[in-house]
Amino acid sequence: MKGVVVMLDVEKVRKDFPILGRTAGEYPLVYLDSANTSQKPQVVIDAIAEHYGQHNANVARAMHMLGAEATEAFEGARSGLAQFIGAERSEEVVFTKNASEALNLAANTLGASLKPGDEVVISVMEHHSNIVPWQLVCERTGATLRWFDITDEGRLDLEGAEREHLINERTKIVSLTSVSNVLGTHNPITDIARQAHEVGAAMVVDASQSVPHRVTDVSTLGADMVCFTGHKMCGPTGIGVLWGRHDLLEKLPPFLGGGEMIEVVEMARSTFAPPPYRFEAGTPPIAQAVGLGAAVDYLSGIGMAAIAQHEETMTAYALDKLTSIDGLVILGPTEAVDRGSAISFNLADVHPHDVMQVLDSRGIAIRGGHHCARPLHRRLGHQSSTRASSYLYTTTSEIDALADALVFTRNYFAPRFNQG
Length: 420
Fold this sequence. Notes:
Oligomer: single chain
Low-confidence stretches: none
Strand order of the largest sheet: 4-10-9-8-7-5-6
CATH topology of the largest domain: Aspartate Aminotransferase, domain 2
Shape: globular
């Protein structure tokens, strides 16, 4: 029946991921670091192996059988991705080596026309990949970088931004994360994009923490560019994606120069290929694109709505377990409402690296540090944090193992919690 979401069979899903059968000494592997990188299903591993074993050749250049097969697979992956994110045409999908390169592409092309007096707006909750490129382009052009602050709950301070007229007639670009990789906060991208467009600004979205986890439709999102990465969505490393409105991409200058991004090269000047090839200089990540195409097929087969529902259940369960631990402080929203599955926290007076090391000794993989979001941690008054992040293969028993291990770690380093 239309509108009904089929529940995800997590035990069946787990059988698709060979690494989840590993043990760490006497403990089963508990992988709770998917916001960092996701694990890969066997179909993705097989797709990459088959490409190298049977179809390996360069794309576009080689006119022989293998070249045609490689090109067909590469462009097939592009078409599959376009459909996966709701793009109107495959030419709107540009392959990069990761989301960082995609965001640098956005900054260097959109930012080429910036001048003193212009403003770029980001937020304090951004990953470094959505801060540093805009800092660099503003330094080069004389434009001013401004940013959204956050509330104590870890959401964008929309009222403060309105009071300060953060988005105004000087704003030329707004670039925000759709979901914070630290706080899990979902940001109101469509509403902010509307504000940006009202003043003639372009809207860029870092969707690295949203595209892998829920249905994404760029045709209704309101963004002009959307960037994400393959390795967080069951695909291989070394492949990222920039989606852009085709009419916008046609107007932008190249990002890198080299083979295949050209139309005609003369010694005095060159003309450039149409999008997306204008932005894909040199030999692209061919096998990685094939692997990402297989990952998209895999996720689509399961259903993104089912994945989102499972993650919401896991996140609510994890928040309930973690908030019951005395001495544990969660960064960001403590309810599974408008938030993703990444949960960052600090435990008593235990350094996150110590927490990570103890949990690793018990087979639990998490992350400790500032998660490439140092300004956000400073804003929250924390040097760093520990982060647990679930995905489609996470189970409640793994969350239970995490909670038990955190209590053990807390009691070991802060025995006062054992008293009375």
